[in-house]
Amino acid sequence: MKRRRRPQLKHPLTGIFDRAVVSLCTALSPESVRSYDATVRSFLVYLAAEHPEVTRLEQLRRDPHILGWMAHLRAQTPPLATTTCIGRLFALRTILNELTWTNKLPELAHLIRREDIPRTPHTLPRPLTAEQDRLLEQEFRRRNDLGGNVFLLLRHTGMRIGECVDLSTDCLRSTGPDQWAIHVPLGKLKTERMVPVDAVVSELVQRLRFFRSLDPLPHDGRLLARPESKTALTAQLRDYLHQVCHSLGLSTRIVPHQCRHTYATEMLRSGVSFPVLMKLLGHTNPEMTMRYVDVALTDLQREFQMARAKPRHLAPQPRSSSPQLRAGLNGLIDSLQASQYALEMFRRSVPNGDKRTRLHRLANRLTKILAQIRKLQNN
Questions:
Q1: Could you tell me if residue 123 is inside a domain?
Q2: What is the span of the domain harbouring residue 67?
Q3: What DSSP character marks residue 64?
Q4: Which residues, 6+ apart, have CB-to-CB distance to 27 below 8 Å?
Q5: What is the chain's pLDDT, residue by residue, as a tens digit (379 residues)?
Q6: Distance between terminal CA atoms of the chain?
Q7: Exposure pattern of 196-212 as b/e (b: 16+ CB <10 Å)?
Q8: pTM surpassing 0.85?
Q9: Whether 36 contacts 21, CB under 8 Å
Q10: Is the dihedral of CA 243, 249, 253, 257 positive or negative?
């Protein structure tokens, strides 16, 4: 079923804005071009409806034209996402800056100010719960169809869905004896990377190659066939996930990107270092990676109990099976460690107050004394 084309926009400023978009988008992706086009359409449709007297750039004013359009964006039903509003404000400001130079109208550059653009919301990561993860993986493997294998690949590599639909047929590369990695092409951050995978993921790629060989569409070098466009294929995969979640009785608000969050959290809990996780996810900024890391309540409880049970500054409990102290500095260290342990255990039994504070200071002094004696031992 083909999508209906929207009627051509008729406004005296359409040609001027379209030329500015063409100038800006010469080296940008089709998605960026569509974003600029949508912004122009939104703004000019609003002008035509609310301010039909505006037919020239010189007539544009911050109030009421720009401020009115911003209020119109916020009042839409259903409401636009904050990130969408931010994107449209940025796009219109960029277009107005372009028109400033091409039409010698410096006042256009001040119609949208920095304070007009809200801050990007910092949302918490939404990894799948253990039960959701288990049910989805089980269902994907049971179906063993194109969509199921795509989502299993997303879950076990941490790729974005846009990167997955861009994979080449030869994306699986050998990096050594029985070692494999998937080459992820240029993606959202204009970076490419190699993601190590195991035999299970290698088998997923082989299955997707098989599905591609059965597709009647001409082979274009991509692992996934595109019936119409990249956007259409992405929409089909999102719809597939929606149907699977509905059939399992899971929340239909689960989105493909949650597979990436789940992968990142799983890698971190498995002991993968933070710099390595950045490389696996294709991030260039540590702050970006932090948004993908979920510290579950169970993790917090475990780490907290371990810290309380064995503080780093506290020496191990002396062995009762060693009544005789060693000679020299080693014996002195044994004695101080025993005193340090006894002092700390007693301090914990004392209620909060001045006495407990002073015991804490004494414990710190013993720690420093031990450090100095160890230095003597190494000299």
A1: no
A2: 14-116
A3: I
A4: none
A5: 344 455 667 888 999 999 999 888 877 778 888 889 999 999 999 999 999 999 999 999 999 999 999 999 988 888 888 888 888 999 999 999 999 988 889 999 999 988 888 876 655 557 888 899 999 999 999 999 999 999 999 999 999 999 999 999 999 998 888 889 999 987 655 678 899 999 999 999 999 999 998 888 888 889 999 888 888 899 999 999 999 999 999 988 899 999 998 998 888 888 888 888 888 988 888 877 777 665 555 565 666 666 666 555 444 555 444 445 577 778 888 888 888 778 877 877 778 778 888 888 888 888 888 888 888 877 6
A6: 82
A7: ebeeebeebbebbeebb
A8: no
A9: yes
A10: negative
Q: Any idea how long the chain is?
A: 379
Q: Which of 269, 259, 268 is nearest to 289 (CA)?
A: 268
- 337-343 — which CB contacts under 8 Å span 24+ positions? 337/370, 339/366, 340/314, 340/315, 340/366, 340/367, 340/370, 341/314, 341/315, 341/316, 341/317
- Among 52, 83, 116, which residue terminates a domain? 116
251 and 202 housed in the same domain: yes
Contact 37, 19 (CB under 8 A): no
Structural domains of the chain, count: 3
| Helix 30-50 with 67-74: angle, nearest 10 deg | 110
Single-letter code of the amino acid located at 215? D
Q: What is the 8-class DSSP label of residue 168?
A: B
Residues 22 and 161 in one domain: no
Beta-bridged to residue 180, according to DSSP, are 174, 197
